[in-house]
Fold:
Amino acid sequence: LSSNSGFSQSAEESNNSVFQDWRFKYGEKGFEFRSGDNNYLLQIQSRLQFRFATPSDNDPYTFNNFSDNSNNVFKVNRSRLKVGGHAYKPWLKYYWEYELGQSNLLDYRIMIERWEWLNIKVGQWKLEFSRERRISSGAQQTVDRSILNRSFTVDRQQGVELYGRLRTKGPLDFNYWLGVFTGSGRGARENDDKNLMYFGRIQWNMFGENLGFTSSDLGIHQKPAAIIALAGVTNRSPYTRFSSSGGGVLEGFEEQNPGQYRINQANLETALVYKGFSWQSELHWKNIQDRVNNQETKLNGFYFQAGYLAHQSLAWWPEPLEIAARYANFTPNTLQDYYLDEITLAFNWFFKGHRNKLTMEVSEFDLETADVGIKDEFRFRIQWDISI
Amino acid sequence: LSSNSGFSQSAEESNNSVFQDWRFKYGEKGFEFRSGDNNYLLQIQSRLQFRFATPSDNDPYTFNNFSDNSNNVFKVNRSRLKVGGHAYKPWLKYYWEYELGQSNLLDYRIMIERWEWLNIKVGQWKLEFSRERRISSGAQQTVDRSILNRSFTVDRQQGVELYGRLRTKGPLDFNYWLGVFTGSGRGARENDDKNLMYFGRIQWNMFGENLGFTSSDLGIHQKPAAIIALAGVTNRSPYTRFSSSGGGVLEGFEEQNPGQYRINQANLETALVYKGFSWQSELHWKNIQDRVNNQETKLNGFYFQAGYLAHQSLAWWPEPLEIAARYANFTPNTLQDYYLDEITLAFNWFFKGHRNKLTMEVSEFDLETADVGIKDEFRFRIQWDISI
Amino acid sequence: LSSNSGFSQSAEESNNSVFQDWRFKYGEKGFEFRSGDNNYLLQIQSRLQFRFATPSDNDPYTFNNFSDNSNNVFKVNRSRLKVGGHAYKPWLKYYWEYELGQSNLLDYRIMIERWEWLNIKVGQWKLEFSRERRISSGAQQTVDRSILNRSFTVDRQQGVELYGRLRTKGPLDFNYWLGVFTGSGRGARENDDKNLMYFGRIQWNMFGENLGFTSSDLGIHQKPAAIIALAGVTNRSPYTRFSSSGGGVLEGFEEQNPGQYRINQANLETALVYKGFSWQSELHWKNIQDRVNNQETKLNGFYFQAGYLAHQSLAWWPEPLEIAARYANFTPNTLQDYYLDEITLAFNWFFKGHRNKLTMEVSEFDLETADVGIKDEFRFRIQWDISI
Structure:
């Protein structure tokens, strides 16, 4: 007597394999369709980020931005379709992500992940250069990334990468990433010159756990987990910064000739989670060499960020509530007396982890210059981020 | 003896819930994947609207449009991907709709629908301001909306809304909608000023049935169902009209300064269905206050529309065939002698309700001005709209 | 005792039909969801094409393109979402394809395929005018199409088409296509004038098999299969060429007035497969009549292409490896001494047929003119194309 006979495709075979007994689930990555032999997996997830901001949603970074205009804005800030899984074999993985509101293809990549110590990725994705950029906008601890992100992120690039984890039973436990990219940003169709972008990152998993790119200690680690990472990238292109829109310009770098800018960047990063407490920091250096005008500019900046699920200490504190804070400091040009800093205080209410979360945030921005003194601005934002 | 054991994910539990026995269907909203506990639902639907029009597809609204050019056009006029359902709980609903041909995100919204009398919606969607705009382009009784739509629709906005149904067993049966929106139209990323859009609608369900936003009495109501609704909206923005493209300009309002226009609008709406007959009407007022040039403009217009599945009366009339007609009248400026009207006659052949429908339509447009007298134009269109 | 009772939607019926026992598969067209009665089918496939090219990815076609610039580029060259299947009945088919990276809707079509000899297609798709254009970019024998494609393809159009296969048991075995289109290219919303595009193709299936639009004899035909086809198209529009971007201009035809160009084109095509060997050729004529400047231009060109899965002859040759070559010759203007040709040598490694394939290719381009003599350029490309 055969149960399930109606469902299994008994006599019906595809050219390549037999598929019996598909399995269905709603999991971390959305709706999930998996073949019985686990050679094929399709995951479909939609994500909506709804935001209210006042007086403005953007981070201020010049004097003009520190204006007195007060605009209230409600918006669908992010609207994503995410499709991933694997095909042919469990280790041949794919993922793509499309921003529906802006009609931008963000990620599109294939990963060959057969061995822990050596994997290959090809396509377009966010480089593993900096933690806060790499963490999904839906899994941030605050409403959005710090004031550093605009100037230091390498963002999404197209290329090839080797990566893996090297470890012994002892304290030797490292993750590495080594990649070559066109270096012209998201969606680029051509390179401006022969020069490619080279990227590397080495990460020490201090207590034998790879924390990954996540924030908030929702799993309540009973043993501490921590990483220290150093990342570097070099590129030559017409661009001085990158964003989801592709290559762009920093203030004061409006010229965009092929191969005009050689950019070298480094990032020293830490992260720690323990008993509901989470910490992360980044320390950035960026060197811009203008090969047309023969000039050099140095930028640097850092941030510290910490969060706490305080119900771990306080009996009266609601379990889904996290308090988080960040301090960021940015020097756009080390030769000028011009500094920006940001203090942010945020509260997260996790209905369902990062997949359904309400965040309320207050920030203060300070701009300090030799000429004009200090100017500051407050911002309030509230955001609902939900993945389905 | 356990049947289905291969299919159910017996020992396999997600972090959050156990999912046994998913159910699959092709329903009103397309392909449907539902978890056994009904906490998760994914619906995927594609819609194609294929249209032939001559001499032109657009409604004429100025003298230049009433030209003698005759262009034949076949086109994929609408091509939609619709994804919806619910997640986490049956009452936490989501929906998004993407126009593939134009690469526009149309709807993206979350609805918390726990109680009949109080629901919350956040995101971007077509406001419930006017019936013909709110009815899906795939569920119209004619090939497309009337000449009023271009000038009076509030279209899609981003914001938050409360809505619900209040009723007793007696004749007190109302639906209400109250919303606050950025008021800058579909896809806006910023507000131009502090001012938000406020919207309200109250609808009396005369015979205890909420007709919803549909046309054609495909269900052949044996008892009449009817509504009367009054809706109002106020907004201040650089725009004098809205469409699927976002904020836009009416003729004569080319200036677009932040907060230049305060617009107040009202709509009185009726609808009725009974034994295959359907009726709907809208009566619109719109007041545009130009705060820069200190001018005021008043627009108004109305339409009546009726359809009949005549097999209810005539034995020889084919069951899938509906005849429908509309008269619309539009005054772009109450201070000028300038009127537009539209008479449309349409035939719908419902292969599968509105989900697979052929529509043939003839329209006559008249433009009457003090200077030039009357000018008229005929248009013929045929359209196949199919949802899959 | 009823097995499967948990899965089948025993008592639950949709308005239109009963759906028992859905079936799931990963097949040629991706993830597949099929209703038990086979009235509904949804297929979802993602396709990624990742390419490295040096010194440039584009085919050169003017002297400026034959420059000495050497750019290396890695890129996600194509990123497609393909959705298809059937609905309501097995013969009511649908298909749409979206280019995610460029945010372009490529195909969106409905096919009524009830009888072999008479089918109807409406929507937007690549006309069956020329073989190499019609074959999916993922199923090419080389990295991409020949130098002819840019000037001769009719590309995607919006319209209506009748097509089918007429055959007897004897050698009379033909496929035909007859279509009417707006003739303004992909994504056009309006026609420029009254003139439509008319298209026809007749194809003789020489040995009683319709080869379809595919390349490479992956099925290893033991009996030869071959076709000879003649196709013609006439159009009047502002455009002198078409591409995935819609209507465009050939060099020297920068003016774009409504109805400026009457274009007549013909293509004589052959194809053959036998024991791992495959052959295809096209011979093109194109006549451009500029009705504004009263000028006529004639273009022509041809290519031959052959491939061989050499393990059919050589025991040491790896089974997944195909060698292929192409020669193409293009005359942009029959009145000028100006010729372009292309020689391409390619190797395909078929991991999983065309659905997962690595291609390595070297091309040489020659430009020969009366004035300047011969100029040539080499190009190397490597490409991974994977459908999931």
